[in-house]
Design a protein that fits this description.
mainly alpha; about 90% helix; elongated; protein transport; transmembrane
């Protein structure tokens, strides 16, 4: 068992996709590692919301609907207050972490822009020290400038798409719950 844990990092590090990722990250510079961290946090939160929406929320919704239907009174002030409380609770639980996802998505292009600036500083530094006659030295700085920008935009676009979908599904679930909690008698 101990041998498996000692060999596992070596096996993972030798996988082709890991080697490609490492090469990409080295070409893009330090900012890409920060962008990767932000993207990983964002996707963990997106996956948490997806699991909640398709696993946990239907169970909670069923409990609320069953509790509402088992009530003998649906029209009193007290019954309506309970219903509004459940709807507010559902709204809070459905929209949890959506604003954090939105902020993380907005940070991605900014980190890409930071990578552009640091890459251009690297290019100008090479030009000041070595002169502008060596294109190979300038190419690494230009790579440092363009890769983080591209990665930040791709991360932001995919994050925006999934955030918009999550918001739409949450809104639809809220409306569905509200309709289910209407009086049926």
């Amino acid at each position: 068992m101990e041998a498996i844990f000692t060999l596992l990092p070596e096996v993972i590090a030798s996988m082709p996709w890991v080697l490609s990722l490492q090469a990409f990250m080295q070409q893009g510079g330090q900012v890409l590692w920060w962008l990767l961290l932000v993207v990983c946090i964002c996707w963990v939160l997106i996956l948490e919301r997806v699991v909640y929406l398709w696993v946990q929320f239907p169970k909670q919704r069923k409990q609320w609907v069953d509790a509402w239907l088992s009530r003998p009174d649906h029209h009193s002030w007290h019954a309506r207050s309970i219903r509004e409380g459940w709807l507010s609770q559902a709204h809070l639980s459905l929209t949890q972490n959506l604003n954090i996802i939105k902020v993380l998505v907005a940070i991605c292009p900014m980190l890409g822009l930071l990578g552009t600036v640091t890459g251009m500083i690297s290019v100008f530094d090479v030009m000041a020290n070595q002169g502008s006659s060596n294109p190979k030295l300038m190419a690494s700085g230009i790579s440092l400038a363009t890769l983080p920008t591209m990665a930040g935009m791709v991360a932001a676009l995919t994050g925006m798409f999934f955030h918009a979908r999550l918001v739409k599904v949450c809104h639809r679930q809220e409306i569905k719950l509200e309709k289910s909690l209407r009086s049926r008698r």
